[in-house]
Amino acid sequence: MESFLEVATTGDLPEGMLKSVTVQGREILLARAGGRVFAVQGRCPHFRADLSKGTLTGTILTCPLHHSQFDLRDGSVVRWTDLQGILLKAATVFRAPRPLTVYPVKIEGDRILVSFGSP
Fold first, then answer.
1. CA–CA separation, 53 and 66 (whole Å)
2. Can you give the CATH number for the domain in which 87 is found?
3. pLDDT digit string (tens) for 5-49?
């Protein structure tokens, strides 16, 4: 059985907003898009940029550093970096594309709850 912890309230997270929270020593990024709340790792797997400073377009999160893009629905990589040509190849070899860790979310009343796995 999954254990959920309260991390914020729905009032803390208006539509289209990104919010960084630290829970149990983990940096978590909360995002609200399309009326849904998403929770993913707070640092980009490319070069650990703070994703709360990124941009959100629908469910696509863009990293503020090298413009890596991820789909918040499943954490998948949409684009690893905005570099091109040989720079893109080098960046991909140096840091292979990795998806974001996605955490289950549920809403109870105005509470946003996130699960980090089994207790």
1. 12
2. 2.102.10.10
3. 999 999 999 999 999 999 989 999 999 999 999 999 999 998 899
Q: How many structural domains are present in the chain?
A: 1
pLDDT tens sequence across 96-115 = 789 999 999 999 999 999 99
Answer for the pair 59, 34: CB distance below 8 angstroms, yes or no: yes
For 4, list phi and psi in degrees, rounded to 5. Answer: -110, 140
Q: Is 12 helix (H, G, I), strand (E, B) or coil?
A: helix
- DSSP 8-state class, residue 39: E
What is the total residue count of the chain? 119
The sign of the dihedral angle between the CA atoms of 22, 16, 6, 104 is negative
> How far apart are alpha carbons 83 and 102 in whole angstroms?
25
Token digits for 4? Answer: 């959920």
The whole-model pTM stands at 0.89
Give backbone dihedrals phi and psi of 90, rounded to 5 degrees, phi first: -65, -45
Are residues 93 and 109 in contact, defined by beta-carbon separation less than 8 angstroms?
no
Helices (H), 15-75: none
Q: Which residues constitute the domain of residue 52?
A: 4-115
